[in-house]
Amino acid sequence: MNSDTYSCFVDLEKNEDQANFNIKCKMENRSEIYAIMAPHGGKIEQGTTEISIAIAREDLSLYIFNGNKPKNNGTLHITSSRFDEPQCEKILENVQTVLAIHGAKDPETEPKERVWVGGNLGKIFETHLIETLSSLELCIEINSNLLGENPKNICNRGISQRGMQLELTKSLRDRLNMDKEFLEHFSDSVRRAMMLAYPSS
To answer: What is the pTM of this model?
Structure first.
């Protein structure tokens, strides 16, 4: 059962003060092949904004929905299969594939730092991530509870209808946002794996 407060963006917009959220959308003079998206950025799934910006750099299309409330930012969470904010929809109509960045809770067992791979390109993406991220010695796997394979999932709604997602645990997000060198290595490796999973030509 979905526990979202709002079923769509129109509902959210009607009920939330505009100061409670902001949107970063960058398409002009950027890639029409790849978009990096964080639909639960800011204080909703903390760290996903900064990680997405690091992966997109200045050349990939970028979309971020940031929660800014003093507390209870979880009310701004709209599940990826129903996320329909208009600027996001515009990017989805104009890029070939999407990599969505999400935040997950830490698992109960070690290691706490995990990369859960999803999307309908998840299996091939996982294969390339294991290679490109090998030097960081992270646990990279497919989590059966977070597959992201629904055709309506934001990562699968680009023009090709083939996409990828990463669910990054809290401990990993915290480390990425505290260690700039680690973030740079991680984001570079994720970019390479994404481009191997969905080649531009």
So the answer is: 0.96
